[in-house]
Amino acid sequence: MSGGNRNLRFGLALLAAMVAVGVAGLVALPDPNAQELTATYLPPAEGGHLLGTDGLGRDVLAWVSAGIWISLFIAVAVVALSAAIGVTVGLAAGYLGGVVDALLMRLVDLQLAVPPLLLFIAASAALTPSMGTLIVLLSAAGWLPYARLIRNVVLVERERGYVAAARLAGATRRRLLLVHLLPAASTTALVLSSLEMGLVLLWEAGLSFLGLGITPPHNSLGFLINEGRSTLAAAWWVVVFPGAAVALLVLAFNLIGDGLRDTVHRDVDVIDR
Amino acid sequence: MLRYVASRLAQGLVVVLGAIAISFLLVNLTGNPADVLGGGFLPPEARAELARNFGYDEPLPARLADYFAGALRADFGVSIRTGEPAAGLVLDALPNTVILVACAMALALAVAVPVSLLSVLRRGRGVDRHVRTTLLLAGSLPDFWVALVLVLVLSVQLGLLPSVGFTGVDSLVIPACALALPLVPALVRLLRGALLDVTEQDFVAALRGRGFGEGYILVRHGLRNAMVPFITLVAFQVGSLIGGTFIVEVVFGWPGIGTLLAGAVAIRDVALVQATVVIVAVAYVLLNLAADLLVAVIDPRVRVTAR
Description:
The complex is a heterodimer.
Chain A: H1 2-28, H2 60-96, H3 98-113, H4 116-124, H5 131-157, H6 161-168, H7 173-209, H8 221-229, H9 237-263
Helix pairs in contact in A: 1-2, 1-9, 2-3, 2-5, 2-7, 2-9, 3-5, 5-7, 6-7, 7-8, 7-9, 8-9
Chain B: H1 2-28, H2 33-38, H3 44-53, H4 60-72, H5 86-121, H6 126-138, H7 143-157, H8 170-180, H9 184-199, H10 202-209, H11 214-252, H12 257-266, H13 270-298, H14 300-305
């Protein structure tokens, strides 16, 4: 469908634009943590600050562009880790069946019973927040959708003729899984990954907003939104711009995911959370 | 039917036991809660005393057994802040969260159902495509940020609605809108798909042949046939709403379990955190059970084929 390709192109362009803002921050903008206490709460476009400054005189644009890197880094790390674990478990459960499969399905039931955000918040009561903890925590919930979807794909694919032919030709179990079933499942994993990117970005922003995710000196977009919350009426730009950056990043990945879903013509059933 | 109910109940029980196990692990995998609370600065006697209060001086299996025995009686110990039983505090805050979740869900449905019908009636045309793009955008917005922007526009700029607290029906509007918005895309996607499936079936062709209008067919016959997956999704979304409310409640100082949990996490109030996790899981299991039973009542095929 042309609509799908258009979404894909638009999503990629949007992502490229956001990355460009991030690069601009590295090259041309001041240190996002540099405070300028004589220039606090400057409105956008005043005093050489395109998006204004916050309560400590920090440049909002510099913070946003640094925040884009942090957000992308966390999202890529979490999605890569989740995909690696989830695809492995899904292949194993779908192909081997039996106890592995039964265990996996009970785990999925369990995850569906407790909202992930509740678990993250609850876990923060016991853990000290850091980038590593956050990545592990988000991945701990993120791999289950992969496992469930890949398992379902494998259950269908393993009955197809080419798998029987490969088995007849003497392919080992290892070869069947890696050379035949893994590629068959990869488009599903790809579409799911781009949709998961959006989800992880929203989770990270939310947790950082609550002070349970990324904290200074790292520049999280969610953290800046929370900082600007108390002075919303006087300095809207401290809240509006970082939130818009999160929304645009998520939109880019949702467009890419939606476009890919149409392009590969496979109806990936992703439960929306 | 009775067998179906029994098997669903058994599955729900397994999930609740799992949630209890998770809430136990969350606290016990990270070491002695006395060290977490005291930051390692306590004198040895005080540390031992605190550990004993948490039952941490016993071996792990004994602690696990104690915890399960307590949790099954809804006894999670007392909150370290107020000294009241943790489960009671959560149950007191629960109705406020339920009100917020119910309003958000009602609002999302009030938008999603007409939009889906319109989208199917005008399928493939301009309206349908605009709906799809708009929904992608709506699903990308962080709900707590939407809440703040709505406060900025409606409360600060226009002065129409109160911004924080719990002062009446007025104070429900903004948080409910912010929570409802991200739900609409999934609802429309599923309902639109289900309605499109229905329009391709033979009985719809027969209805068309008898001269019924497309709108009448969709409302009278389409919605009813799309009901089953829709109810399941709505129940699922209420669960994810419970997650979303946590942050939005904090933004508005709404006196529900989200605000309670955020406060508990800030001071590492272990009993209160555990009670929240388990009680939310129980509420969620009951909700899904109700949805499954409703589906079984509506669609006889489910109770025949289900285990």
